[in-house]
Amino acid sequence: MRWIYWLGWMSFGAAFRTLFGMRVTGEENLISEGPVLVASNHQSFLDPPLIGNLYKTEMTYLARKTLFTGMGAWLYPRWNAIPVDQDRPDMGSLKTIIRKLKEGERVLVFPEGERTLDGNIGKAAPGIGLVAVKSGAVIQPVRISGAREALPRGSGKIRFARITVAVGKPIRLTEEDTRGDAKENYDRIAKRIMAAIEEL
Fold this sequence. Notes:
The protein is an alpha/beta fold and 200 residues long. Helix content is 36%, strand content 16%.
């Protein structure tokens, strides 16, 4: 790891285990080599480093474009974050994700697109299905529990709560998954990924 990424990885990891008693289940399902599309529910700003700590090598994240100002403009790119405009999403960020995966990297995506308000898992945007098909990467479903209680959306106050990260069995698409209408396939695959997350 580059030193700035390693420093964040170590600091967040220590905090998660000390303050929140982070527990990981299904760790044997982790795909640690090759391109992996990590798909997770989204509860809190804590989610990206939570999942990043599952792996001992770097991964790529998506982050709101508005975070890339001031110190964030320097820091977030060094944490492998890709800026995304949530108000006007376009194909640019999806193409970047696909390229990163084809280059053999591991990329974290939140299919819901935004943090939950009530703790429930929302619907996935079909973009995750497009990325899965176009990249051909293995899909790693992950479910986070407790992060919303630790740092809920709209709050800047961290609370002490037990956090669990469940890792599901990888999903590998076949030719059968990509036959027929592309748009229907993307939607079906997106729903399949969210179902796998919900089951954890």
